[in-house]
Design goal:
- Helices cover about 45% and strands about 15% of the residues.
- It is α/β, with parallel strands linked by helices.
- Strands 1, 2, 3, 4, 5, 6, 7 and 8 form an eight-stranded mixed beta sheet that branches.
- Strand 5 (about 170) and strand 6 (about 175-180) form a beta hairpin.
- The longest helix has about 35 residues, at about 225-260.
Length: about 325
Amino acid sequence: MQTHGKRALVLSGGGGRGAYHIGALSYLEGRGWRPDIIVGTSIGAVNGATLGSGIPVAALRERWLDLSTDDVQKMRADDVYIDNLVRGGRHVFDTTPLLATLKGHSKKWLGKPWVIPEILNSTESHYEVWITAVDAESRQLVYFNNHEADGITAEKVQASCSIPLWYEPTMINRHTYLDGGVIANTPFRKALELGATEIVVVLMAPLPGQTPRASRIAAPPLPDDELLAIPQRLWSAFEPALDMMLTEIVWNDYRLFEAQRRAGEFPEVQWLRCVAPTAPLPVGLMTTYDRNYHIRLFRQAEEDARAALDELFQEEASS
């Protein structure tokens, strides 16, 4: 029977589209493929830290079914008004609810934390977890991991999710942090650095060169309150360009990786495969958390993972 080396799962950023990760995770679990390392950015950091906290894939799926936008950001128009016009804020939405959700401190999530440092940062954790953020002062990508002295906390996960302009920066020990996706939305390089031999990268935008297809998932409606609809409308105009930029960055990095492999670098890597949607996901899903959309993303990701990995796993099973 074939044995594996070091397996790594890389979870990209993408906000409410992080439900797509769950479908890919369900497929991998069904195939008996469990990572040793999880590397995540933004919502990938949330999912990675939650898994590292001892919460299994099935339970994480149930949490996503219960997750709504107001568990992540304040969704009252008067909150937006006070933060930006009275307090002079430099962001649209306040993510105080996200921190309360991660810690299990909100009324809805009381006693059901997503991030449990006592498990995540101990030998009880089944995974080596790495999450990204950007130090706003040095403008450098930083990693937090559950094997370092300070470990991973809910605040560090929040830092990884601090999308500039949309959400406020996160302050930790007098350092200001931004979303890790600013520099590395799909940080597969860390998996290479850690000596991974099998790598699955889960993206939330199609890879360049794929035949364009229409998405089967409809775009979410705008909020009823016009004061909330205005920033969402502006974000929706920007989101496709952001997707294209982030995808091009990771694709160029992937092509560099392939060239390096041809030159003899990374000899330990047996394979690296990407799971990605075949069509752009609808505009607005990045900033919307809704049960019905999550279910559709679960299903799409399982289909995409099957298409990307079935043949590989069948070959391995027969070897």
